[in-house]
């Protein structure tokens, strides 16, 4: 069975064709600048060179058509005909309170995705375009929606509800949803196996530290709490997002700078986090760490604040679960950044965490980085959202 995984952003489309016999990637690629001048497709097939195509993609329908052409191309392709694709799995950002599991797409599902446009204004419209483009390109092939909010929907109400008048939850479904759900779900379940924990009761904290960053607590792979909220702005300090903040700061900046709420939210989403705190050096940790090493005080403070916030959440989530058995690092920073991992773990000696420095010096590899004597297992497990989406899709079709 071959499953195509599609991840549509507002102007991009990432794809992978996965052979579910061995879960190997047959081909993967990226369409960039969809709807903008200068669109480009980059396609890489197993055992073949990279193929680039500069062709205008005014919308996602055209992009999907080019992806299909690349997949069946006699030179760069990996299948003879698109009928070899058994199903398409789509990453979909938001399903509000309606769905907490992946689902085969029909007209009702599309309506829910559309109804949630205001909860995911950048992603949900693009996700729906991707689904409709696949329906048009491959009539009869099932499409499955895998929601980024699904994992967080399992949180108990004490974790998911904000302390605001209850009517806003009733009227507008304002609650904490959590994002990166596919990654948290995948990594937390992998951690149960990798760390030899009980599949029902294993207590795991996953630190998904990428450009966007979030952290989750789960027991037996089921979400207990997760740091992102109604939108991906809540929680950890991120590349460009502030994470947790006193909401009164928004009103204060609006009044002082004559800005609208939308403008300040844009600043909190795109110009804050590591980028903002470092005085604008970069949202990329490598750049900020370089400045830190050169003695830049703002860079040093930004990195220290980032580490401190993650450590605080680990403390909170250990309390939420009355213990923790495994702490897992994943995504760009979590998989690669040794000083960030070491810095976070330095706060955790009270839990009996002991890091093996040699093991922690590896990058991007599934590794146990705690010593055998450590009371809590600490490891790196690279995330694989595409494979998780493909597995969900296979299970449903
Ligand atoms: P992601 O969103 O998961 O792709 O992660 C992107 C972030 O990971 C980048 O902004 C970098 O800050 C960080 N990153 C990627 N590779 C490395 C590396 N080798 N060392 C340190 N940080 C890295």
From TrEMBL:
Compartment list: Cytoplasm
Sites marked Transition state stabilizer: 180, 241
Record flagged with keyword Lipoprotein: no
GO biological process: acetate metabolic process; acetyl-CoA biosynthetic process
Cofactors that this protein relies on: Mg(2+); Mn(2+)
Example GO molecular function: magnesium ion binding
Main location: cytoplasm
Sites where the protein binds ATP: 14, 208-212, 284-286, 332-336
Keyword terms: ATP-binding, Cytoplasm, Kinase, Magnesium, Metal-binding, Nucleotide-binding, Transferase
Positions with a binding annotation for Mg(2+): 7, 385
The protein's Enzyme Commission number: 2.7.2.1
Single GO cellular component term: cytoplasm
Enzyme class, UniProt record, top EC level: transferase
Catalytic activity: acetate + ATP = acetyl phosphate + ADP
Pfam families registered for this protein in UniProt: Acetate_kinase (PF00871)
InterPro entries to which the protein is assigned, alphabetical: Ac/propionate_kinase, Aliphatic_acid_kin_short-chain, Aliphatic_acid_kinase_CS, ATPase_NBD
Pathway note: Metabolic intermediate biosynthesis; acetyl-CoA biosynthesis; acetyl-CoA from acetate: step 1/2
Chain residues that bind substrate: 91
Origin: domain of life: Bacteria
Residues forming the catalytic site: 148 (proton donor/acceptor)
Cofactor note: Mg(2+). Can also accept Mn(2+).
Family to which this protein belongs: Belongs to the acetokinase family.
Role noted for this protein: Catalyzes the formation of acetyl phosphate from acetate and ATP. Can also catalyze the reverse reaction.
Subunit structure: Homodimer.
Protein name: Acetate kinase
């Amino acid at each position: 069975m071959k499953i195509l995984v599609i991840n549509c952003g507002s102007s991009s489309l990432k794809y992978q064709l996965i052979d579910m016999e061995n879960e190997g990637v047959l081909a993967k690629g990226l369409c960039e600048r969809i709807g903008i001048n200068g669109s480009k497709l980059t396609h890489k097939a197993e055992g073949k060179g990279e193929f680039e195509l500069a062709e205008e993609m005014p919308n996602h329908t055209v992009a999907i058509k080019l992806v299909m052409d690349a997949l069946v191309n006699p030179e760069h392709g990996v299948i003879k005909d698109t009928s070899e694709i058994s199903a398409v799995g789509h990453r979909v950002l938001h399903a509000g309170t309606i769905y907490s599991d992946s689902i085969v797409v029909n007209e009702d599902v599309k309506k829910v995705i559309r109804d949630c446009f205001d909860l995911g204004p950048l992603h949900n419209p693009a996700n729906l375009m991707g689904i409709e483009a696949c329906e048009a390109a491959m009539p009869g092939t099932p499409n499955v929606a895998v929601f980024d909010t699904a994992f967080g929907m399992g949180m108990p109400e004490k974790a998911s509800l904000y302390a605001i008048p209850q009517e806003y939850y009733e009227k507008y479904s304002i609650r904490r949803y959590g994002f990166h759900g596919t990654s948290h779900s995948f990594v937390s379940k992998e951690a149960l196996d990798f760390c030899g924990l009980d599949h029902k009761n294993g207590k795991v904290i996953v630190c998904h530290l990428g450009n966007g960053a979030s952290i989750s607590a789960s027991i037996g792979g089921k979400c207990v709490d997760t740091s992102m909220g109604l939108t991906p702005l809540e929680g950890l300090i991120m590349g460009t997002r502030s994470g947790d903040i006193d909401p009164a700061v928004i009103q204060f900046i609006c009044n002082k700078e004559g800005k609208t709420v939308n403008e300040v939210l844009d600043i909190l989403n795109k110009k804050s986090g590591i980028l903002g705190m470092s005085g604008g050096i970069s949202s990329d940790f490598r750049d900020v760490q370089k400045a830190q090493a050169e003695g830049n005080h703002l860079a040093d403070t930004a990195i220290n604040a980032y580490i401190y916030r993650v450590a605080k959440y680990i403390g909170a989530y250990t309390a939420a679960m009355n213990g923790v058995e495994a702490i897992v690092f994943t995504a760009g920073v979590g998989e690669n950044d040794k000083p960030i991992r070491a810095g976070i773990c330095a706060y955790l000696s009270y839990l009996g965490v002991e890091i093996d420095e040699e093991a922690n010096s590896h990058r991007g590899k599934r590794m146990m980085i705690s010593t055998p004597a450590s009371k809590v297992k600490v490891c790196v497990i690279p995330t694989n959202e595409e494979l998780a989406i493909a597995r969900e899709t296979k299970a449903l079709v």
